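Hello, quick one for you while I still have it in my head. Could you read through the record and tell me how the tokens relate to the sequence? No rush at all, and the record is pasted right below.
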Amino acid sequence: MVDPQDAIEKARNAISERAELPGMSLMEHLEELRKRIVHSAIYLAIGFFVAYVFHERLYGFVQAPLDKLGIKLNYTHPMDPLNLYLQVSFIGGAILASPFVLYQVWLFIAPGLYQKEKRFVIPFMTATVSLFLAGASFGYFFVLPGALKILILGFGSKFNPIVTIEEYTGFFLSVILGLGISFEMPILIFFLAMFGIVSPKFLLKNIRYAVLAVFIVAAFICPSPDPWTMCIYAIPMLALYLIGIGVAWWVHPSRRRSSEAAS
């Protein structure tokens, strides 16, 4: 079992190690946070307007999995088509603006990092965007078509499918965003390890709990009730957890201190 006291002690040690870093007052932190939120909102707005120029192409991207099954989207409210265009434009704009937003996140946390830790900015941004796109692509090209075939051509083979814009959009986003976010697991481990909250030994010791947690998350976000689709979700997440252990070994303060002592 995970020892809460041990985790608290590790967090305290990580905080005490950073006591020597230049401090900021509460008002300075709030002002910095406000600045980063404003800049992020501006980048998101720009990304939205750029994506809206291509909203019909984005709609075609969303509709494509249904086109392969010969199904067209239906709507029950006059606002549904406009809402679909706005939603896909916002998601597309957010993805387009994500490198700039992530850089704002990095600028906010950078004052609490050592100079050697700040060199991780480029790997952090590259890995975060790449992992999200990898998860979203995996969901779009593999999970979503398979789930639609199982649900519509399998369980729903004796019925006439009337797929509405509102319901399909929610289903589509749950698959794409769910997998995109779940693929960010190594990034979460990266920060926890860099601040000394978790270690590679801790992650390996509790791997059985990680497997259980991964399958629970997979069952929650999986759009299909069959266990095979759930395994399709879970296997990449387990692989990412193992990658995260390697990342934790790379950035953990104990390894960096031992490397510095050896040099």
Notes: The chain has eleven helices and no strands. The two ends are 37 Å apart (CA to CA). Residues 148 and 154 are 9 Å apart (CA to CA). Residues 17-21 have pLDDT under 50 and may be disordered.
